[in-house]
């Protein structure tokens, strides 16, 4: 995969949703929260949109928006602390262990937060 890709393309190519469905025994009760543009899939949940959103749906959207924002902020922090995972010239999906780099970076960032405090 070369260059930036839309999230839906990455989701399809990663087969993450398929893996969650395949391993229902492990992921029972869990879903992936994604953008409404991804369409309806058994394991994808997204915010409510439209003019007739109920108060309960608005509350859900607000709650999930704050979670989404925190996750996006953490990915930004991760890329700041571990620039290698954002270095496009050296990271090629299926040609380098990108997933392992990201997982190790997340682990180290969590260790850093535990030791020094922070989010």
Write the layout of secondary structure elements.
Blueprint: H1 7-14, H2 16-22, H3 24-27, E1 32-33, E2 44-45, H4 55-81, H5 98-116
What does this structure look like?
0% of the residues are buried. The protein is globular. A two-stranded parallel ribbon has the order 1-2. It is mainly α. It folds into 2 domains: 1-46, no CATH class; 65-119, no CATH class. The longest helix has 27 residues, at 55-81. 55% of the residues lie in helices and 3% in strands. The mean pLDDT is 82. The chain has helices at residues 7-14, 16-22, 24-27, 55-81, 98-116, and strands at residues 32-33, 44-45. It contains 5 helices and 2 strands; from the N terminus they run αααββαα. Keywords: Metal-binding. Its cofactor is a divalent metal cation.
Provide the residue-averaged pLDDT.
82
Q: Total number of β-strand segments?
A: 2
Q: Name the helicity range.
A: 40-55%
First-residue to last-residue Cα separation: 32 Å
Number of helices: 5
Extract low-pLDDT stretches: none
The whole-angstrom Rg is 17 Å
From N to C, what is the helix and strand string? HHHEEHH
| Largest sheet composition | 2 strands, parallel
